[in-house]
Specification:
Blueprint (H helix, E strand, L loop, with lengths): L5 E9 L5 E5 L2 E5 L7 E6 L7 E10 L12 H4 L9 H16 L10 E4 L10 E7 L2 E5 L6 E2 L9 H14 L6 E9 L3 E8 L5 H11 L4 E8 L6 E4 L2 E5 L5 E5 L8 H15 L5 E5 L7 H5 L4 E6 L2 H12 L6 E4 L12 E4 L7 H5 L8 E6 L2 H13 L2 E9 L9 E8 L1
Parallel strand pairs: 3-5, 6-21, 11-12, 16-17, 16-19, 17-18, 19-20
Antiparallel strand pairs: 1-2, 1-4, 2-3, 4-5, 7-8, 7-10, 8-9, 10-11, 12-13, 14-15, 20-22, 21-22
Helix pairs in contact: 2-9, 3-4
The structure holds S-adenosylmethionine.
């Protein structure tokens, strides 16, 4: 008897989350693991957040740009949904996300999407966010809270993979409940391990953290339990990363840093070039530890930089001082920027974007806005708000910061229409 849950369909596109959008006789179904132009068979699953979901059972007609993934866990993990596509197809899919975000907005049709590729397709990531559930340390499975251990994550830089192995070996048996682990490369070859536990942990874990901090590939370990203020630390937990142009930046373990050094170098130079800060009053929102700040400060007339993480603000001030540069760096909410007159505003918000800021009248009408985004959905929403206030798009650049995944960084420059 034919399985009633099995249906066939044509893949129309890949959505922002990395799932294929498949047109079937039963309607549109989201399915991981398929590519545009393919005809597939799928098993219908339950709906989530209003969208029908399915599981790929067979590729009936494969895209010519389909390829074998370089990771044995690709279909189980879900972190790299585009690993089954050639780099060229990955690029076209991601360019499509950016184009959709800008579609129909003033200036968009006259702005080509410029594209920055990653020199490394694999082994490029200098930080990884893992989770643990009881004794398993790994990535969260696609569309699930379940944690899955991955023996060899091929997009990570080698020391990070070694750091993961060490963390598994030293910590797995003493971790309780659930939590997150961030692995961050410091310098060229050592790792800072940052643990954030949701529940109280047994005394053995503290001993295991100490043991982990003495491993050659591990520089230091921090452990924070619940929302308690100060983490326990072992070893050197400060990270030193390439950034801010040619030099290095230092920051506290766990503070934000861009994932891909070579693409970040291009992102920084593009932000500074398109801001044209020379002799102007610049406001930078979400400055982190100063990745863009040091380049902007080098020629701006004045620079005010805002960041909510006080430890990152201290690091940003240090990174400026070390270069003999000056800016006013303040701890604050980027949605309530310091009052003042600014010629240029640079913003680089987290995934949630900057809706509150664009809906308010707090942006005091700069002539240029440089919007760096890691989420094309919120980028599109915010660009609509900005263009409704009299801006037009004049440059769009996509940065393939995360090859094999459905993520990218985009930069849109807006000028007064
Ligand atoms: C995507 S990161 C960018 C950091 C920096 N531009 C860089 O390239 O490294 C976003 C930063 O915004 C900060 N942040 C998040 N929400 C914020 C808010 N409401 N106000 C100020 N900073 C915020 C985060 O702490 C983080 O450092």
């Amino acid at each position: 008897m034919p399985d009633k849950r099995l249906v066939q369909g044509d893949v129309r596109a890949v959505g922002r989350g990395g799932d294929a959008v498949v047109e079937t006789a039963k309607g549109v179904v989201l399915v991981p693991g398929a590519l545009p132009g393919e005809r597939v068979e799928l098993a219908l699953g339950s709906s989530r957040r209003g969208a029908a979901r399915g599981r790929l059972t067979r590729v009936l007609r494969a895209a010519t740009e389909r390829r074998e993934p370089s990771c044995v866990d690709a279909s189980r993990c879900g972190g790299c949904p585009l690993m089954i596509a050639t780099p060229d197809l990955q690029r076209r899919i991601k360019e499509g996300f950016v184009r959709d975000a800008c579609r129909g907005l003033p200036g968009a049709d006259r702005s080509e999407i410029e594209w920055v590729t990653s020199p490394a397709e694999l082994g490029y990531r200098r930080r990884a966010r893992l989770a643990w559930h009881r004794g398993t340390i790994g990535y969260r499975q696609l569309h699930s809270k379940r944690v899955t251990d991955i023996r060899e994550c091929v997009v990570l830089m080698k020391p990070l993979r070694a750091g993961w192995d060490e963390a598994r070996e030293q910590l797995a048996s003493s971790l309780r409940g659930t939590g997150e682990i961030q692995l961050q490369l410091t310098g060229a070859d050592r790792v800072v391990v940052d643990l954030h536990a949701n529940e109280d942990q047994p005394p053995e874990l503290f001993e295991s953290c100490e043991a982990l901090s003495t491993r050659p590939v591990v520089a230091g370990v921090t452990l924070r339990v619940g929302t308690s203020g100060h983490p326990a630390t072992w070893g050197e937990t400060r990270v030193v990363i390439p950034g801010g142009g040619d030099g290095t930046l230092d920051g506290p373990g766990g503070a934000f840093s861009q994932a891909n050094d070579e693409v970040n170098a291009k992102l920084v130079s593009t932000v500074v070039e398109l801001s044209e800060p020379a002799g102007l009053r610049v406001l930078e929102l979400h400055c982190g530890i100063g990745n863009f700040t040091v380049g902007l400060a080098a020629s701006a007339k004045t620079l005010v930089a805002v960041e909510q993480d006080p430890r990152a603000v201290e690091a940003c001030q240090r990174n400026l001082k070390g270069r003999g540069l000056h800016a006013r760096v303040v701890v604050g909410d980027a949605n309530q920027p310091p009052k003042g007159q600014y010629d240029v505003v640079v913003l680089d918000p987290p995934r949630q974007g900057s809706k509150t800021l664009f809906e308010s009248n707090l942006l005091p009408g700069p002539k240029r806005l440089i919007y760096v985004s890691c989420d094309t959905a919120t980028l599109g929403r915010d660009l609509r708000l900005a263009t409704a206030k009299g801006y037009r798009i004049d440059r769009i650049v996509g940065f393939d910061m995360f090859p094999q995944t459905a993520h990218l960084e985009s930069l849109v420059r807006l000028v007064r229409a």
